[in-house]
Amino acid sequence: MRLSAALSFISPVQTASNYRYLRINFNQHSKAKLTVGENAALSYVNNIIFKLGIYMAGTNLLTLLDDITVLLDDIATMSKVATKKTAGVLGDDLALNAQQVTGVAAERELPVVWAVAKGSFLNKAILVPAALLISVWLPWLITPLLMLGGLFLCFEGAEKVFAKFLPHDDKSESEGDKLDLVEYEKQKVKGAIRTDFILSAEIIVITLGTVAAATLINQALVLCVIAIIMTIGVYGLVAGIVKLDDAGLYLLNQSKLSANKFKEILGKGLLAAAPRLMQFLAFAGTVAMFLVGGGILVHGIKALHHIQIAVTNYGQTIVGTTGEVLAPLIFDGLLGVIAGLVVVLVHLAYLKIFKK
Predict the structure, then answer these.
(1) I want to staple 343 with a disulfide (CB 3.0 to 4.6 A). Which of 15, 155, 262, 327 is the partner?
(2) What is the DSSP string of 198-229?
(3) Does 26 reside within a domain?
(4) How far is CA 81 from CA 131, 142, 183, 270, 330, in A?
(5) 3-class secondary structure, 178
(6) Element (H or E) spanning 286, and its range?
(7) Which are the contacts of 174, defined by CB distance < 8 A and separation ≥ 6?
């Protein structure tokens, strides 16, 4: 009877979930005073329970790995879709950030790019959790915040146009010439990080819209993946662009040492192309500010969005597919210019009124 009582706890072996119960029950029964035969039987049962534990651990591990694989597959798929949708903003981001570091001393270009990249990572470390929280608790707030960012981009673009074409204050110019190089570099970095914040916000909101139907954990993981890929991709390319002239000079010097004609031609080509590319990026960066800023305003205001659709349809009827592609871009750009000029004029009026 004592043996049957001692072994009565074997029945729960039928379900793996009772393994913990088996261990506790066995430990309790093993403390009882049993005969040699009963102890042998208990040892046999203990061996079964031990093997069951190994089996359960292996099964749980395989199940966990399967779940992780499915999760990673989902994240990879959603990240791929989100990357395609944010590719347009990525081009603007690249042009803007390359433009922001122009004018910096050659030996300080990479440190400046690295400083901006660190600022970009910090931006995304703030924006990703903020976007998730806002999407859960205050989803209506995303569009107004984006529109404020769009207005700021339009303002920065218009400010650059004003600075380029309007007469300058000689006093401010002389003060700018005397500006400490370290302070100038800091201003460049701050400006680039500030612009990156708005573009990063747009990328994150687009990504969030792509994975809106996913679980919160999947949304968070996809946002993190996109944030890392975009930052490394953009600033890796920016670093390559700003060092093109150095690469050309290196190839030219190497060609003299090895008498390699191909290296000489390539080196001269890079040296000739680098300043033109930077000039183009300075122009493209300003245009991108108007395009991105205007585009955000269009998508945030339904009336403007309807006008854009009408303009796009009209462009398509006039010149076909080309009009369909160019019409919304032209509309966004013009709207960005108008919005930027209005904000600049309001800003100048504010300064004149409150600085008196």
Answers:
(1) 155
(2) HHHHHHHHHHHHHTTTS-HHHHHHHHHHHHHH
(3) yes
(4) 19, 21, 41, 35, 26
(5) coil
(6) helix 261-300
(7) none
Number of domains the chain is built from: 2
Angle between helix 216-242 and helix 87-100 axes, rounded to 10 deg: 40
pLDDT in tens, 41-86: 656 656 665 555 555 555 544 444 444 445 455 555 555 555 554 4
Q: What is the dihedral of CA 263, 264, 265, 267, to 10 degrees?
A: 80
101 and 52 housed in the same domain: no
Q: What is the pTM of this model?
A: 0.65
Separation of alpha carbons 6 and 25, rounded Å: 9
Residues 12 and 144 in one domain: no
**Helical H runs in 86-211?**
87-100, 109-137, 142-165, 170-177, 181-210
Asked whether residue 178 falls in the same domain as residue 228, the answer is yes
Which candidate, 77, 104, 121, 107, places its Cα nearest to that of 232? 121
Residue 76 lies in a domain: no
Task: Evaluate whether residue 72 is within a structural domain.
Answer: no
Give the domain extent around 108. Answer: 86-354
Q: Say whether both 18 and 49 belong to one domain.
A: yes
